Amino acid sequence: MTGFEMTIALWCVLIAAYMPLLWTAAAKFGGPEKLGPAQNKNPRAFLATLTGAQARANAAQQNAFEAFPPFAAAVIIAEMAGAAQGWVNTLAMAFIAFRLVYGGLYIADLGIPRSLAWSGGVVCVVLLFVAAAGA
Q1: Residue 33, CA distances (Å) to 21, 26, 97, 103, 107 in order
Q2: What is the rounded distance in angstroms from the CA atom of residue 101 to the CA atom of residue 5?
Q3: What is the distance between the alpha carbons of residues 90 and 111, in angstroms, rounded to a whole number?
Q4: Of the candidates 132, 56, 119, which has an alpha carbon nearest to the alpha carbon of residue 87?
Q5: CA distances from 126 to 12, 40, 51, 57, 120 (A)
Q6: Spatial distance between the Cα atoms of 19 and 110, rounded to a whole number of angstroms
Q7: Other beta carbons within 10 Å of 20
Q8: Domain boundaries, the chain
Q9: Topology annotation, domain 8-134
Q10: 75 within 8 A of 92, measured Cβ to Cβ
Q11: 28 and which of 22, 35, 94, 128 could share a cystine (Cβ 3.0–4.6 Å)?
């Protein structure tokens, strides 16, 4: 046994890694246009034709992929630095919450609240790095 512990924050990294699937499902199946066998031959071309909430769900998916690397790095660095685990877990869970709210607001076409949720996620990532620096 190495003494490695799968912390809440590390589970949040797994959740964040697969969060884009939630938004892609909304894009592909959550509106009048549905991904079928013919569209699945080139799903990116299908996604490029979407409009309205489905297009915004696809954009939320893309943004979730973009937000993942800095979050994952911040959690791993904070864990390696020995930052206070409770604080790291709290920030990681807050990031997940902000990102879920962000996606919902994006699909709902609520720009200002969406930007605030996005900012909340960014603040969580920055604070994870700050926690690592202070450890």
Answers
A1: 17, 11, 28, 19, 15
A2: 29
A3: 26
A4: 132
A5: 16, 38, 33, 26, 10
A6: 20
A7: 21
A8: 8-134
A9: Four Helix Bundle (Hemerythrin (Met), subunit A) (1.20.120)
A10: yes
A11: 35
Chain center to CA of 10:
14
* CA 72 remoteness from chain centre: 10
- Cβ proximity of 55 and 106 under 8 Å: no
Structure tokens at 17: 């890694």
Tokens of 118: 């996005």
Q: How far apart are the first and last CA of the chain?
A: 25
Each residue's pLDDT, cut to its tens digit, for the chain (135 residues) gives: 466 789 999 999 999 999 999 999 999 999 999 999 999 999 999 999 999 999 999 999 999 999 999 999 999 999 999 999 999 999 999 999 999 999 999 999 999 999 999 999 999 999 999 999 998
Structure tokens at 124: 């969580």
